[in-house]
Amino acid sequence: MSVMRKGVSAVAPHPTPEPAGNPEWLNTIMKGDCVAALNKLPSKSVDLVFADPPYNLQLGGDLHRPDHSKVDACDDHWDQFESFEAYDAFTRAWLMATRRVMKDDGSIYVIGSYHNIFRVGAILQDLGFWIMNDIVWLKSNPMPNFRGKRFTNAHETIIWATKSKTAKPTFNYDALKTFNDDLQMRSDWHLPLCTGGERLKDDDGQKVHPTQKPEALLYRVLTASSQPGDVVLDPFFGTGTTGAVAKKLGRNFVGVEREQDYIDAATSRIEAIETGSGASLDMQKGKRAEKRIPFGNLLESGLLEPGAELSCSKGHHLAVVRADGSLKCGDFTGSIHKVGAMVQGASSCNGWTFWHTSKGRSRSPIDDLREEIRTRLRS
Amino acid sequence: MSVMRKGVSAVAPHPTPEPAGNPEWLNTIMKGDCVAALNKLPSKSVDLVFADPPYNLQLGGDLHRPDHSKVDACDDHWDQFESFEAYDAFTRAWLMATRRVMKDDGSIYVIGSYHNIFRVGAILQDLGFWIMNDIVWLKSNPMPNFRGKRFTNAHETIIWATKSKTAKPTFNYDALKTFNDDLQMRSDWHLPLCTGGERLKDDDGQKVHPTQKPEALLYRVLTASSQPGDVVLDPFFGTGTTGAVAKKLGRNFVGVEREQDYIDAATSRIEAIETGSGASLDMQKGKRAEKRIPFGNLLESGLLEPGAELSCSKGHHLAVVRADGSLKCGDFTGSIHKVGAMVQGASSCNGWTFWHTSKGRSRSPIDDLREEIRTRLRS
DNA sequence: TACGTCCATGAATCGGGCT
DNA sequence: CAGCCCGATTCATGGACGT
């Protein structure tokens, strides 16, 4: 494979849990045009994409006439259309190239401001991507609006999307909830700008990259939508924040960047990073990750006897356990879930938390017995 | 002029500073299709537009809360579109009709969610509108994500645009700054949902409109981008929040609405309002309360590294920090609070004061690190 | 009256594995 | 691929009601 130009395999691949045989493009920065470089990667090889595309349209003189003459809205409209057309074509091109290298259940995050994010979002939808959330990064220390003509632009927008409506992306819900003091993570992220020691400066003290993103932002994206060992692509790598955080969190990365200065800065930056130890990268897991225990196991293991009586938490509903693992409540029989739903008149029910055993006056959910089985299995 | 159908001039025009001779459509609700109604208004007659168009939510089946109650979703027919193309055509049509009736220096605000706002924003740009800001309405009390599959959708986006790049829109910078405790008004607005007494209910106690917006939101829009006596258009009038706030603030309004039920509700609502009663109205101020800092922020910001060891104040209990912000203590994992409670055998625990970092022989609570983050956020 | 508990509800693109 | 069925999943707020 000749994905990389000479001298561009900038960062030595670091050890990761998997895959064992790393392709040579892994944990490197590919120099060159975004689309051309992406076309050299294999299809469906990337778990997560973070993209911070350029959005300098309208900020330069593109829309001014050379003579600065005043134009009415109609003429102006044509100029804008031309410019937006070009930006749209660029956006479609890199999004299509990115789409090809994404795994079917992968995620893509794109960040932008009001100058470009609406075009990016609409094109994502037009290309068949399925938006999961939009997220707002609220800057605690934004640049004030000096002229007092607008609201202080204190946020940027991030779109999280999958390749299709039916995709089942990684989403570490429990890890994020734990991270957030046991509350669901919301779509508003309050994070400071990238400043201070984190901001890369050149020898003259000038910032190396105009829009270096804070590592905290990438930390959260990678924690949400990837697992250790996953491959994270950043098609506009810049000074390598994505790669730095990926390495810190034990993910693999691959970047694309055109400017050699940025590649150099990113390379040394990432080399200085140490991957966290294996155990510290484990994520908080929820019940969904646990092995399924059929209710019948409680009988097989002797934790429940056939004929045992179960009740709801308040003792209003009673049912008898039968030897085959079904419940009998009046004339109705079925699984713990079905009978639980029936007695409540609900369409569904989690029998594990609904039904309880009694010891004296206290009741405990049969989920405790399931946990006992799991403990035995682990030991 | 025959803008209004009989019986539709629903709200008696109220006295306003100007214009002296009010056109008959002023301070009325026009019944019918948005574009057809707008085409009956004179060109360049409107100072400010607030539009809350259909979001084109594409909902699947029913959604239930964990307690099995059913979510009362917005599944009204007016929110259904066959395709993005159909939604785009609809959006272009009402935006072009709106553009004609806007004064050249007027402003338009459009609110939406990720389902539609990217299409609206791109079409605004395509039609020659000039985006001044995008604003995020952060909901203090959003509906949670019940299935744990996405981030809590805790915000909506508002686009503020003018008819052209050269427009000079009204922007009451100083008034907003005063409202905001002498700080520049930012692009993030923290406001609660429209609930409680403000929410219009019918005789059965059911909400009249599925998406009634809070008056505080409109209060802020009108305060920012209009003057007393200005004309404010809402092409999707609904139950008349825009009209209600306009009357309170001494602005004129004109609304368009198709559903008679909404018109009736809006009419009586607005009739009950007195102009200038807003003297006692205080704009919802940006909350200066101390922000909650989730434990995960310490990792994102680099104040703690994955793998770091924490202890209780006396060093009896030890735990390891994992990359996702969970603690690991033996086989037990969870948030700093849960693990703290577990090791003490307590039902709850303030992890911030219980867990300590060590430097040499001295220990300091991780609360100190949280204070460090707060300091950074304040800077 | 004050306080505590319970309940209802909000623009929501909300499951997944096995047969 | 459709169907079956296990079983996981919520936060802030306001109002009603009880003590």
TrEMBL record, chains A, B:
Residues 284-377 form the RAMA domain. InterPro entries: DNA_methylase_N4/N6, DNA_methylase_N6_adenine_CS, RAMA, RM_Methyltransferase, SAM-dependent_MTases_sf. Pfam families: N6_N4_Mtase, RAMA. The keyword Ion transport does not apply. The keyword Chaperone does not apply. Keywords: DNA replication, DNA-binding, Methyltransferase, S-adenosyl-L-methionine, Transferase. It catalyses: a 2'-deoxyadenosine in DNA + S-adenosyl-L-methionine = an N(6)-methyl-2'-deoxyadenosine in DNA + S-adenosyl-L-homocysteine + H(+). Residues 46-267 form the DNA methylase N-4/N-6 domain. Gene3D superfamilies: Vaccinia Virus protein VP39. Residues 1-23 are annotated as: Disordered. Its EC number is 2.1.1.-. Belongs to the N(4)/N(6)-methyltransferase family. This is Methyltransferase. It comes from Roseibium algae. The lineage of its organism: Bacteria, Pseudomonadati, Pseudomonadota, Alphaproteobacteria, Hyphomicrobiales.
